[in-house]
Amino acid sequence: MEYKKGKTKEGIEDNVQLCAQAMCLEEMLATHIQNGYLFYGETHRRAEVDFDSELKSQVEKLSLEMHDIFRRGYTPKSKVTKKCNACSLKDICLPKLNKCVNVSRYIEERIGEADNK
């Protein structure tokens, strides 16, 4: 069971995350986990997630991609969306930095924001 603060998303990112967690538990505990649940706090609804071979393949594919990115020392550019405001990594991701062409201006703007608080 994974608790999510918001509501059901259109994409499969929550399912992938839950499946990845289950795959780790399967390996650590030498067991098989067929399914799990996502509970969304905003809607008070629970959704069942089947850990089928297609979802597990997606987890493996994304894991390999993540390891390749890490090995190369590459930081992918983030795409700023409305979802950024609710992201737990918002304060360290700095998605606005990708939109700013001049680094000096960006730093000055951030210092100005801090002075105005």
Characterise this structure.
- This protein is α+β, with helices and mostly antiparallel strands.
- Helix 1 (13-29) crosses helix 2 (53-72).
- The radius of gyration is 19 Å and the shape is extended.
- It is built from 4 helices and 3 strands, in the order βαββααα.
- The protein starts with a strand and ends with a helix.
- The model has no long low-confidence stretch (mean pLDDT 87).
- It has helices spanning 13-29, 53-72, 90-93, 103-116, and strands at 2-4, 35-40, 45-50.
- It has a 3-stranded mixed β-sheet with strand order 1-2-3.
- The protein has a domain at 2-76.
Task: Please supply descriptive tags for the structure shown above.
117 residues; alpha+beta; 3 strands; 13% strand
Q: Treating each run of at least 4 consecutive H or I residues as one helix, how many helices?
A: 4
Distance between the termini: 39 Å
Helix and strand sequence: EHEEHHH
Mean pLDDT comes to 87
**Main β-sheet, spatial strand arrangement:** 1-2-3
Radius of gyration: 19 Å
Quaternary organisation of the protein chains: single chain
Low-confidence stretches: none
Find the structural class using helix and strand composition.
alpha+beta
Beta-strand fraction estimate: 5-15%
Largest sheet: 3 strands, mixed
Task: Based on Cα principal axes, name the global outline.
Answer: extended
